Amino acid sequence: MDDATKDVSDLLQASQRHDENRPLVVLAGVGRTRESRDALDLLDTYDVPRAVVDTGKADATVADAIDAFLTVDDETVTAAALAANVAAVVNGDVYDDLRHLPAVSYWEATPERYADLASEAGYDDETAADLRGAVAMQAHYQTYEDKREIVQDLLWGDDSAFAAHVASQFRARLDEELDTVDSHVEVRTIGGVPIHVVDVEAFTHRYDFPPSDLLLDALYRDARDEGAPVSVVGLDEDELHVRASVDVQAVGGALADELPEAGVRPRGTRDGYVEFLRGERDAVLDAAVDEVGDRLAAGVEAPTRD
Fold first, then answer.
1. Would you say 97 and 122 are in contact if contact means Cβ atoms under 8 Å apart?
2. Which end of the chain, N or C, is more open, meaning fewer C-beta atoms within 10 Å of its C-beta?
């Protein structure tokens, strides 16, 4: 809703001052779940056409608020890869400048096609990894600032040493936080499936790098064995984050049915999480661990998000 409000303000200003037409808004990797309804309605109020490009189906609560929806048949594709493809289709002149971006956005298991494109553009696996870590770190420390110039220097600059330097800081701080939290990981086993539970509110350095999302992603990669179902559940003050090959929206829906007084609301999709009332924290955690474990044990899984 914040982004939609800003976009509407910008387009109204552009229309009044420069007589510009309404833009077509294309949402890549976002916009197909119920949380986007208010933002989509705001765009519709000002006659802004809305197209969504994403994996999976559009939620029934937002389907009628989308003018065009394209489903990509690959649950592991990243939002950055979707956005880069959209940009290249809209303007073929920028194709060469974007060839390395999809590969940079994969933390592991980069599709061969994207790795080849990055290599052709002069970005090997190590360079792509450096850029990924460097961008993640700058995005964190400049969350509320305009990052355009720094990100531009990282992704398209000639000084590879700059990205390597920032990436080394990224790895050092991530490893340090992983060491800190490791002794506070509780492993619960549900149906033979290990669930790694971390109280990120109590056992991480809040507001410092890395943020909880990156830390949980790294814990999930470390905990996952080849072919073995595993999950990481991060418990925050009033949010529960899940890293597992399960449908977080479905998990959240099940928790809402089981705990009607807990104010449970699923948010997001592949990197989704569950909101709840702080007073129901323990009950939500126990129910979530059981639900995720049961789904993994039964094989009710969604493709792994890399």
1. no
2. N
Instruction: With beta carbons less than 8 A apart as the criterion, state whether 150 and 141 touch.
Output: no
Strand stretches in 57-159, DSSP E: 68-71
What are the structural domain ranges in the chain? 2-133, 184-298
Q: State pTM to two decimals.
A: 0.85
Report phi then psi at 275, rounded to 5: -90, 150
What residue spans of 241-301 are helical by DSSP H?
248-258, 281-298
55-96 tens-digit pLDDT: 888 888 899 999 999 998 888 899 999 999 999 999 999 999
Choosing among 3.30.70, 3.30.30, 2.40.128, 3.10.310, the CATH entry for 184-298 is 3.10.310
Sign of CA dihedral 3, 62, 29, 12: negative
Cα(first)–Cα(last) distance of the chain, in Å? 27
155: nearest Cα among 93, 79, 103, 209: 103
Residues 225-265 have pLDDT tens digits of 656 778 999 999 999 999 988 888 889 999 999 999 999 99
Helix %, strand %, coil % of the chain (to 5): 50, 15, 35
